[in-house]
């Protein structure tokens, strides 16, 4: 009898949990692969709703509460009457999860989240004609494989950055020119090699194999069939023996390079700058094989309760002055071509290669690996992201 | 007022009603929040996720548990985690015993409370501050390297050893305190009697002190073992590339909640087994 009571309690609890969970699984989320539901973008904007709820990376929505000098939200609120409520997310996966709640109007999604949001019907297509500043966005960022489907834009590009190879100039000699420094030649600095702690890092290994093992036929590091994937995973398992630590918290990487615990590994431009500022002898660059990178896109929720304010925000965040401010604060290349006139450091856009499309040609932006190969192959199926996550656990051992 | 008196009277006449009203709130707390969430954890471990959108699909399946037992990396991480928890527990016991012996029996009585306070002070500092301090100590050219340099060796660097050391430091007070209490309560005349009967110090320790203090060591070990088994932050900061169960749960929680739940049941089961083993020593009654 007691057991049945317990079971009843469990069932009740389950129902509660289920009801909470299922309220948002409305549109087409259950099918595998990229078959976005047919959602319509608005054709004209209405009156603003008085507030907007955003999900953003740290440093993207600053209202002066972190640093009184860093504030591009207050003016937005004054001009549009839209009160900004922002939630900082720590990872792409968290962003996806938060968007599913339906409580947010817009999100600054990276390429490894955006496709997932499109596929599940959580992000709506964006009518770029309603975002006046969209026309000044660098063409390299428009209609990317990570932010559009069938020529339909699902957001407004925010900015981009490359994953660089950073090394300690005092301890790593001769200066590396290739990613082999962290793969085939990593044993030279055994125990002092670092790598980005995320399944998406498998693409870095694939990018290296694309250049060094042409027999594998890798075209796109995010579209790997089983054989290519296994080769990348095997390479990373060999790399693991030489890794000192993986990083995902950028402060941890800065401290590791400062102390010398890490001497070579992947990084972002902003981390390289901060590490150099703190007195460490480091250099960061794009190796000859090219590199992976990230490109963030502001997307509007399909369930947005404040779509008009969300569109106003999209236009505001990519307006030349604000885009310059946020790019400079975060340390990334701005998306708006006119932003370069507004940076406080006049060399900023040169340092970050903002307008150097040739530089970005070598960058494979983060994307969500899916079963339908992103490089257009139809004779094989590719390894989906869920398998990347599993493999990443196995690589770390 | 009348109502109040009447209610009081009714409650006085019905002791069972009184008791159930008294216990309702804490029992509800225990059943719903604690056992309830454990049940949800266990049940959701049987669900699956959509491989692309990571949405939880409520289809009953034992695939997660099968994967848990058949995937070599999971087995390896589980064994490593239990190994770390045991190593931390043993190290804590070995260090705590002499310290507690000093604070409880050797030090002058007026100093004893002060020493206990000194042992407890690290607990007042933030966990993160202490772990980051250890990161500095163990980093390249840090305090550990500097101290070991004259002996021709260097610090352990970040890794499994560093994680065990740091966890030992973190949980040591939880081991010292119960041992200190047990040693303090040890009747002095038993030691005298042992000496009168001709036992040397070593013999007294083995035959008198140890059996009486052992339940307290076991009690302390429950803290050190379970706290180490659940930890994932320390290992992230000083563990280098090491993964423990907590890290696996953390890395699965966003994308594959059912798998995270399946992994989460492992420490629960291990700790239940550990508690059952410790109950035999009488540790639970000396907590």
Automatic annotation (TrEMBL), chain A:
Keywords: Periplasm, Signal, Transport. One of its GO terms (cellular component) is periplasmic space. It comes from Streptomyces canus. Its main location: periplasm. The keyword Signal applies. The keyword Coiled coil does not apply. One of its GO terms (biological process) is polyamine transport. InterPro entries: SBP, Sperm_putr-bd. GO terms for molecular function: polyamine binding. Residues 21-43 are annotated as: Disordered. The lineage of its organism: Bacteria, Bacillati, Actinomycetota, Actinomycetes, Kitasatosporales. It comes from the Bacteria. This is Spermidine/putrescine ABC transporter substrate-binding protein. Residues 1-22 form the signal peptide. It is found in: Periplasm.
UniProtKB/TrEMBL annotation, chain B:
It is found in: Cell membrane. It is a multi-pass membrane protein. Residues 78-278 form the ABC transmembrane type-1 domain. It holds the Pfam family BPD_transp_1. Keywords: Cell membrane, Membrane, Transmembrane, Transmembrane helix, Transport. InterPro entries: MetI-like (IPR000515), MetI-like_sf (IPR035906). The chain crosses the membrane at residues 21-47, 77-102, 114-137, 157-177, 208-229, 257-277. GO terms for cellular component: plasma membrane. Its main location: membrane. GO terms for biological process: transmembrane transport. Belongs to the binding-protein-dependent transport system permease family. CysTW subfamily. This is Spermidine/putrescine ABC transporter permease. It comes from Streptomyces canus.
